[in-house]
## 1
Amino acid sequence: MAKKAQFRFNIKNIKYAFPDETGMYDAPKDLAYANSLALESVFTENPLYGDGLKIATVASDQGKTGTLSVINKDEDYEIACGRAKKINGGLADTQQLASIEHAMYYETEDLEPGKKSTIKAWLFGVTSGQAGESYEQTRDTETINAIDYPLTIRGVLLKDSLGADNYTDENGNTVMITRIVCKPGETGYETFGDSVPIPKALD
């Protein structure tokens, strides 16, 4: 296959959705204006030895970690994550007693010769921790102070083509899905960010 001049840039339109008591997701809500998103795979390989030789390798894929940087905190998101509460006098930071998994949506832009498009993506099994904050004094111009959320993306189990049961491959293994990316022209692209999709295997 010939090389492709393709460039990915920008981060925009962050949304989040939490599951209800039945496991179905609520309608996605806007999070905040995005500054940056960094994702890193948590993957290790453990070599196995016999007779002094490396005879096999066990792979361990624990999903992803990352940092979401936004320009301001969203009160509703903080409350939904269990680390903020409205009290007498204002919004209080509270001790976060649990990590509540949810789905997170974002968009990037794609550039190929003669064509620019928007790529849409959902992350699954997301938890976020207390945001880091850093403030600097204003000098000649205003200093913008971003808010950085540490993310862990554990993923969810892939469902079969009907979406009812967990999918298993030919060796009986279940499959974890950490992200779905949808590009222009693919099925469901127009409404991809309107609700959280169920990861389903092909027929």
## 2
Amino acid sequence: MEKNFQSLLSLICEVRLDYRRVNDLAIANEELTIQFYDTKNASGVSETRLCLRDSKKNEYALSIKQLAGLRIQTGTITATWLDEFKSDAGGAVFQTVAKEFVESGKSLEGLKFKVVKQLKVKNNQITTSLTPVYKDFCYEGVQEYTRGIRALLAGKGSDFFQTADYARGMAELREKLHSSPIKQGQNIESNLVLLPVFQVI
């Protein structure tokens, strides 16, 4: 870092204080647009990434694969659970919309999204009843889960997140977490994991 106030000002402006994920978005009238931002990976190499940005400049990070897989409302959605959405006549994924854009010669520039519904996720580790997935902190196994993530990521670069080893490792850790009991008093509606469905505007 250069020792001057101008370089310090630039660094302050570049720092990302809050890391928000696209799945953190909840139902709101807020409109979001696709934006690009530059950042440095763990090796210090600059790279361009994607996000959805709202009018308050809050940014919700996502990968190209996540953008392609965004759940989109195309009609009336009857699904309550994530696994029901795949066969819902009123839903599609954004890749389908993008292909229509290519065919009609449209651009993604200026395209807006709005969250119009949220879907619950079934806990597939509990087969005796229809049980939703709760946020990580609600499970008694959360400390072991956190330690497992640290061990999985130890010494890995940002490209590791795109590998099958990462996906497999995270799936195993989540399965173990969701097999552990819910902490007393944490199985409440506000602690449910809810995934957004978007309307394209």
